[in-house]
Design brief:
Layout lengths: L2 E14 L4 E14 L3 E5 L6 H8 L7 E8 L3 E4 L5 H10 L1 E4 L11 H11 L4 H14 L16 H13 L5 E5 L7 H16 L3 E5 L12 E6 L2 E4 L5
Parallel strand pairs: 3-8, 3-9, 6-7, 7-8
Antiparallel strand pairs: 1-2, 1-4, 4-5, 9-10
Helix pairs in contact: 3-4, 3-5
Organism: Desulfotruncus arcticus DSM 17038
Pfam families: ABC_tran
GO cellular component, one term: plasma membrane
Length: 237
């Protein structure tokens, strides 16, 4: 199986200027992920899990290391040093990110947000409308909310919109940062169902979870982030 992303010697630190102090978040992270794998990552709050994803998505620039992504359009790309235009393209067409937080355009409805994600992929209006409604229905978001502004939603409702918007694009690589954090059990099951579907369709995923038990039998491999390093905790068969 071909590798879709390879992380080598990734390190990231933050400077606390007010305290004149350097905080090391990641130290020598190494990870290779094959196409179609689902890799689960756990660890204590503040251990740096989200920082790994933000380096992949290039929200953060790492101090050291290489993040080699095998792009359909550009071929091998080092995400740690890629040109901004490449990063923008990859975020739009190849790499999806589900965060616990929803940043939305003011006065844009839930339906429009999800529909816009499909239109960005080059699909037509009618198809985008159908896919948006199908995805919102899957996450059991009340129909009365579809044409409302998500700025007024609860945390769980916002997270469901965020997941719907990312997953409806069916990206090649999907980063899931605590996708079940503020969801009830029924909504968690909906997330799991969709993850299973995307795995079957060939999407590669990296997911951060407090409770890897919920993702049991879905993860190809499991890691714990401890002291800035990734530790393989995959159960032996």
């Amino acid at each position: 199986m071909d590798e879709i992303i390879v992380i080598e010697h990734l390190s990231k630190s933050f400077t606390m200027h007010c305290l004149e102090k350097q905080i090391e978040a990641l130290h020598d992270i190494n990870l290779a992920v094959n196409e179609g794998e689902f890799v689960g990552i756990t660890g204590k709050s503040g251990s740096g899990k989200s920082t790994v994803f933000k380096c992949i998505y290039r929200t953060y620039a790492p101090q050291q290391g290489v993040i080699r992504y095998n792009s359909q359009k550009f071929g091998p790309v080092n995400l740690a040093a890629a040109a901004e235009r490449q990063v923008i393209y990859l975020r739009k067409y190849e790499i999806g990110y589900v965060s616990q937080f929803l940043n939305v355009i003011p006065r844009t409805t839930t339906r429009e947000l999800v529909k816009q994600a499909v239109l960005e992929m080059g699909h037509g209006e009618a198809y985008a409308e159908r896919e948006a409604e199908k995805m919102l229905g899957h996450f059991e978001l009340d129909r009365e909310l579809w044409d409302s502004y998500p700025a007024t939603f609860s945390g769980g409702e916002k997270l469901r919109v965020n997941i719907a918007r990312a997953m409806v694009k069916r990206p090649r690589l999907l980063l899931l940062d605590e996708p079940t954090a503020s969801l009830d059990y029924s909504s968690k099951l909906r997330v799991r169902e969709l993850i299973e579907q995307l795995i079957n369709e060939g999407t590669t995923m990296l997911g951060i979870f407090h409770d890897l038990e919920f993702m049991k039998n879905l993860c190809s491999r499991e890691y714990m982030l401890r002291d800035g390093r990734l530790v393989d905790i995959t159960p032996e068969n």
